[in-house]
């Protein structure tokens, strides 16, 4: 009887360990730093610089997919590698975002790192502000309206020159949202908007600095219960 019980426990443990799925973890980004001006790299010509992107190794990962996106044109460059660094040519005087996806050769699951912004240094004296980060509601989220039938749109902005002057908030039921519902100063990062139940809304934020440089976010959507 003891042999039977022991065999059963062994088979249970062995079976569980055999079925254990080891999914990749998210990589920790190293360089270029978040919201920084990158002056490090190899100059290719007057307009282009070669930058080495670096991150820490993540668990249960066999390969990485680096995505570097030009925030002015919304055009991404994607590089696959089994190393923890990769080189990408980027345009000078331009803001970028980047993130890394960790992938496994044994499971279909993957993990995505945080997304960092940086400014690839150029010769201009005034920097374009980074697109604002839309923080609430999140895209695809379903939210409740308050007692006044309103929802708060919230964001955060950053600029290497610290000279953001205003934010323009666009909000509507159409995609893309074209209705300007508010223009606020740089000390404001939230705006209340009126909503209707069981309706999908779209919104984005345009950032304007003292030199009239502008940037605009991607489009977020959310649904009101």
TrEMBL record:
PROSITE patterns named in the record = PROKAR_LIPOPROTEIN
Q: Which Gene3D superfamilies match?
A: Immunoglobulins
Matching entries from InterPro entries are given as:
Ig-like_fold
Q: Which protein is depicted?
A: Fibronectin type-III domain-containing protein
